């Protein structure tokens, strides 16, 4: 729309200009008095706008229109998705059945727990998650995962008894009970450099055991003999905020590890304590896509880890890497005066799982999916 000047006398204008000492205000008032609406001006303005639109480049207009349509579609697609519900550690612990034992473990039967849930539709669920991932991103690099999901039942049932992951087996991965430090050299060295920091935070936590049998945040695991306690910072890919606040430096350290599994249900980080006389029954881990790392914090004599029939001892301030999808057990047969065996446990990616596969597995096995 366009303003057109009104006819006013010179006297009126002078009177108006003298009402204020501010020149900017004077000009604004004069402009308001000198202009008014005009239908003719409105028509000219619309005609000018239409002509400008016609003069624009057709290719540019088409590109802008396509981008607008894509943006509207994206907003609609994202808005349709239901928010994801995440399982909490407390719900897993409260729903556990103390009478449901298998290989010395208590299975919680929570529908959200990928390890403890036993149902025939798991393979279909995993394949659906893989298809959803491929639609959003790409099928590129998904050959092994697709093969593993398609033939998961055969892999799990036909595996030799020495290695039987309970949930997911990724085919064609090099397999061995123990891995050298070179497999994840950066993260091993980083953990060992921060050994004293982790140990100090553990000793602060452990003082609470003198006041009560099981302090808040600790979990007691089922064992044939003795006591096995764990203090989780991350449990099945889900952070435990209250525990992380008690070990802030250790929790921050996890963010510096290059290969830490922090975004799917196979990722854990915890302090594991075995009291003298404890034996952990032989059992299998849920998958072969990870390497379990134990950083020795307190390592009394007569403590051993046996993986695939091969025994190893922990060393204070040193990392021990192993594949927990192999049948494994641990025990502490040292004297009571030597105290508990304590390790900081972290799950790292198997070095032969490619970056594209890691991204897809994080999506497929995201907590609560």
TrEMBL record:
Assigned keywords, A-Z: Dioxygenase, Membrane, Oxidoreductase, Signal-anchor, Transmembrane, Transmembrane helix
Claim: Acyltransferase is one of the keywords in the record: no
Xref: Gene3D superfamilies: B-lactam Antibiotic, Isopenicillin N Synthase, Chain
Places the protein is found: Membrane
Aspartyl/asparaginy/proline hydroxylase domain mapped to chain residues: 192-351
One Gene Ontology MF term: dioxygenase activity
Membrane disposition: Single-pass type II membrane protein
One Gene Ontology term, aspect cellular component: membrane
Keyword Membrane belongs to the record: yes
Family the entry assigns: Belongs to the aspartyl/asparaginyl beta-hydroxylase family.
Name of the protein this chain belongs to: Aspartate beta-hydroxylase domain-containing protein 2
């Amino acid at each position: 729309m366009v303003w057109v000047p009104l006819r006013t006398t010179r006297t009126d204008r002078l009177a108006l200009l003298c009402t204020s000492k501010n020149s900017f205000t004077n000009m604004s008032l004069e402009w308001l008095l000198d202009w008014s609406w005009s239908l003719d001006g409105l028509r000219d303005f619309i005609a000018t706008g239409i002509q400008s639109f016609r003069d624009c480049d057709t290719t540019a207009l088409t590109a802008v229109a396509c981008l607008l349509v894509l943006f509207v579609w994206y907003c609609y697609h994202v808005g349709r998705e239901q928010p994801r519900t995440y399982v909490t550690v407390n719900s897993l612990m409260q729903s556990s059945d103390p009478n449901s034992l298998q290989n010395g473990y208590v299975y919680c039967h929570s529908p959200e727990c990928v390890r403890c849930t036993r149902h025939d539709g798991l393979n279909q669920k995993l394949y659906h998650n893989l298809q959803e991932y491929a639609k959003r991103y790409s099928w590129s690099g998904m050959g092994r995962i697709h093969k593993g999901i398609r033939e998961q039942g055969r892999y799990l049932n036909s595996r030799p008894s020495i290695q039987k992951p309970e949930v997911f087996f990724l085919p064609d991965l090099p397999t061995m009970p123990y891995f050298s430090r070179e497999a994840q050299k950066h993260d091993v060295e980083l953990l060992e450099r921060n050994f004293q920091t982790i140990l100090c935070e553990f000793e602060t936590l452990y003082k609470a055991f003198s006041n009560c049998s099981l302090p808040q945040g600790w979990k007691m695991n089922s064992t044939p003999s003795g006591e096995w306690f764990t203090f989780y910072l991350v449990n099945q890919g889900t952070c435990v905020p209250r525990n992380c606040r008690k070990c802030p430096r250790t929790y921050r350290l996890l963010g510096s590890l290059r290969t830490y599994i922090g975004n799917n249900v196979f990722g854990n980080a915890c302090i594991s304590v075995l009291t003298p006389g404890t034996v952990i029954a032989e059992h299998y881990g849920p998958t072969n896509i990870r390497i379990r790392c134990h950083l020795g914090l307190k390592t009394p004599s007569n403590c051993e880890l046996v993986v695939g029939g091969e025994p190893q001892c922990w060393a204070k301030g040193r990392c021990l890497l192993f594949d927990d999808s192999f049948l494994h057990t641990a025990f502490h047969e040292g004297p009571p005066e030597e105290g508990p065996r304590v390790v900081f446990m972290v799950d790292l990616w198997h070095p032969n799982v490619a970056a594209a596969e890691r991204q897809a597995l994080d999506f497929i096995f995201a907590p609560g999916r």
